[in-house]
Design brief:
Layout: E1 2-15, E2 18-31, E3 35-39, H1 46-54, E4 66-72, E5 77-79, H2 85-94, E6 96-99, H3 103-106, H4 113-124, H5 130-143, H6 149-152, H7 162-174, E7 180-184, H8 192-209, E8 212-217, H9 220-226, E9 229-234, E10 237-243, H10 244-249, H11 254-261, E11 311-314, E12 317-319, H12 324-332, H13 337-340
Parallel strand pairs: 3-8, 3-9, 6-7, 7-8
Antiparallel strand pairs: 1-2, 1-4, 4-5, 9-10, 10-12, 11-12
The structure holds adenosine-5'-diphosphate (ADP) and magnesium ion.
Length: 341
């Protein structure tokens, strides 16, 4: 069952140069208890997607998104975009919580860890006593693997290491047992060992709470480890959407193929140059007509001036590339005689 269904989401910003269309018809579904990866290079619209879902776009530049964002946990069902502002505080935290790359931007430097945890609990469980909130805060810090939580609870964010701060942010996010956790590059700023610990913690907590995760990252290694399904974004659109195995073993969009190729492999020779997708994401005011990837695509032809629509490759696998079948056919042609020599 889809707990979150995003349909044709369009998000625009007012800028000095005019209206920028940061998301241009994004659709995907997040299943209950599962992890959906949102991947793509910097600037492709991942954070704008998460801020649109949370209704936290910066004002006044960010316009109200168009489209639908349906939440449905079985007992509650509503379109987030149609909710009056006063309902949003109840949705944020209780139904959907979010963690960011840099915990210092969301933790308040002047309050202790315990104060911030208890403030969150107070908003959502006003009937809870002070003692119960303190006890619950210690439990939450224990759950996220913070040693000596009875001491840490009295500390300020700057007294903690990066990994510990990220754990505190996760504890705050989980304080209200949300149905959905949106994690926007949660481990990008952490070193590899700490990153692995945080990812493992997220998986553990997800199972415990049967929580759905929208996992935003540009790191395909993390995607392989964390995600059930993957939505590949390019320049404000969804290029491809498929189960994680399909994305890695049977990518259909030339952009996805490029991303997969650019992952460093342990078995390739050190000398061989890392593949990279040439060029840059076009800026929002100079998008090519038709497919947005065409100016970087090794397979582009005149046909790509026509806008692609999502096509079903097989169950759960959709690709937005007009030429995907031709490209696949060309790639699977057996090598000619000279190729065998
Ligand atoms: N406040 C804003 N005003 C204008 N444009 C913005 C704003 N925030 C984001 N954008 C634009 O939206 C696009 C998507 O940005 P973002 O979602 O942050 O990318 P990502 O998270 O994938 O790196 C970019 O082109 C960015 O410049
Ligand atoms: Mg981002």
């Amino acid at each position: 069952m889809a707990i979150l269904t995003v349909k044709n989401l369009v998000t625009t910003f007012e800028t000095d140069r005019g209206t920028a269309r940061a998301l241009d018809g994004v659709s995907f579904a997040l299943e209950k208890g599962q992890t959906l990866g949102l991947v793509g290079e910097s600037g492709c619209g991942k954070s704008v997607t998460s801020l649109s879902i949370m209704r936290l776009l910066p004002k006044p530049a960010g316009n109200s998104p168009e489209g639908e964002i349906l939440f449905d946990n079985g007992s509650d069902r509503f379109d987030i975009l149609k909710q009056p502002v006063e309902n949003l505080l109840k949705i944020r935290g209780r139904k959907i919580a979010m963690i960011f790359q840099d915990p210092l931007t969301s933790l308040n430097p002047v309050y202790t860890v315990g104060y911030q945890l208890m403030e969150t609990l107070k908003v959502h469980f006003p009937e809870m006593s002070g003692a119960a909130m303190f006890k619950r805060s210690i439990e939450l810090l224990t759950d996220v693997g913070i040693p000596a939580p009875d001491q840490r609870i009295h500390e300020y964010p700057h007294q903690l290491s990066g990994g510990m701060r990220q754990r505190v942010m996760i504890a705050i996010a989980l304080a209200c047992e949300p149905d959905i956790l949106i994690a926007d590059e949660p481990t990008t700023a952490l070193d590899v060992t700490i990153q692995a610990q945080i990812l493992e913690l997220m998986r553990k907590l997800q199972q415990k709470n049967d929580m759905a995760i929208l996992f935003i990252t540009h790191d395909l290694g993390v995607v392989a480890e964390m995600c059930d399904d993957v939505c590949v974004m390019y320049a404000g659109k969804v290029a491809e959407h498929a189960p994680v195995g399909e994305i890695f073993n049977n990518p259909k969009h030339p952009y996805t193929q490029g991303l997969i190729h650019s992952i460093p492999k342990l078995d390739t020779e050190q000398k061989s140059k890392l593949f990279e997708i040439k060029g840059m994401v076009p800026d929002l005011f100079s998008m090519p007509e038709g497919c947005r990837f065409q100016n970087r695509c090794p397979h582009a032809t005149a046909a790509c001036k026509q806008a692609p629509v999502p096509e079903r490759v097989k169950d759960g696998h959709e690709v937005s590339c007009i030429r995907h079948a031709e490209i696949a056919a060309a790639n699977s042609t057996p090598p000619g005689k000279s190729g065998l020599e």
